[in-house]
Design goal:
alpha/beta; globular; about 325 residues; TIM Barrel
Length: about 325
């Protein structure tokens, strides 16, 4: 099943004149079976045709470990006080996270989606610039297991797919860690959503799409039988090695000088976008990756400024895979 990512954010839907019928026509034009949705608010959901909605990308809090562990002082320091904490998480107590994911899970059931996507990662704003992490993969994986087992009904029919990132958490670079993580998740209908860009970012030495494809294939083969747990793929390309290995201390210093929390957020997002590009994987070896994994879902997860660029990107991706 071939899908594309979309959100119900008005800026995203403006590409389609805020009309889901135009989205349907676009999907048909590009031989796509539906969408993987991110919900930012409650807008435009009533008119969303359920038959095109196949997956729900759950909320993602990039920074959550300190909050979950109730390190109140640290969290207030990071978010400029209690109101900043409330604005970011929707509450001031760790239980807020569980409620957020319970609500997302309920929404997935109401929508009748086939799968949900859960980011398994943690990073603070500071460490996104410095990479001087004071938490490990195991710290993030252990806390995620605890949170997921409390927030989701283990017997649901909706598949719960855990997505890899390049920050501490589920990187998929360590087979044993990934196996232990999945084994401890009580949710029965579970699996992995492999994000190709996120895997590329773990290797800053990659310079070309061909090198990236070979690295991904090599990494997947090292997973052995764990490969069978990969049920979906986010297809995109990121080769930010030069940027990733540069010194960003001065950029972080500028953020520290920025008092407005929203402006801080915008600057940080700009930094992340220079790492995670979300452009088409335009090398024919991408088809070899798909053939190797044989996923149920292939999602074109791309970021574009307008409909013409999205149209071009989807065409590039379909051509690389051999669908045109």
């Amino acid at each position: 099943m071939y899908l594309m990512n979309i959100s119900n954010y008005s800026g995203d839907l403006e590409k389609f004149q805020k009309d889901w019928k135009n989205v349907e026509c676009f999907l048909e034009k590009h031989q796509l079976d539906g969408v993987e949705l991110i919900c930012y608010n409650e807008e435009y959901l009533e008119t969303l045709p359920r038959h095109i909605l196949k997956g729900l990308h759950l909320k993602y809090f990039p920074t959550w470990l300190e909050f979950y562990k109730n390190n109140h002082e640290k969290v207030c320091e990071m978010f400029g006080g209690i109101e900043g904490v409330r604005q970011y998480y929707g509450g001031i107590h760790p239980e807020t996270l569980k409620e957020a994911f319970r609500n997302e899970y309920q929404r997935a059931q109401e929508f009748g989606v086939e799968y949900m996507v859960y980011h398994v990662s943690h990073v603070t704003t500071e460490h996104s610039f410095t990479r001087a992490f004071d938490y490990t993969d195991d710290d993030v994986l252990d806390a995620t297991v605890e949170l997921v087992n409390q927030a989701f009904d283990r017997n649901s029919d909706v598949m719960l797919l855990f997505e890899n990132l390049w920050w501490p958490g589920l990187t998929l670079l360590d087979k044993e860690k990934a196996q232990r993580f999945l084994a401890r998740i009580n949710y029965k209908n579970k699996g992995i959503m492999l994000d190709l860009s996120h895997l590329m970012i773990t290797n800053p030495k990659l310079k070309t799409a061909g090198e990236a494809a070979e690295y991904i294939i090599e990494t997947i083969e090292k997973l052995g039988s764990l490969k069978e747990w990969i049920k979906g793929i986010h297809v995109n390309l990121s080769l930010p090695g030069d940027y990733l290995t540069a010194d960003h201390q001065s950029e972080y210093a500028e953020i520290l000088k920025t008092e407005d929390q929203f402006e801080r957020y915008i600057k940080t997002v700009g930094h992340i976008k220079k790492i995670d590009w979300h452009v088409p994987f335009d090398h024919p070896l991408v088809k070899n990756i798909i053939d190797l994994i044989e996923p149920e879902y292939v999602v074109f997860e791309l970021q574009t400024q307008n409909l013409q660029q999205l149209d071009d990107y989807i065409n590039i991706q379909n051509k690389a895979i051999g669908r045109l």
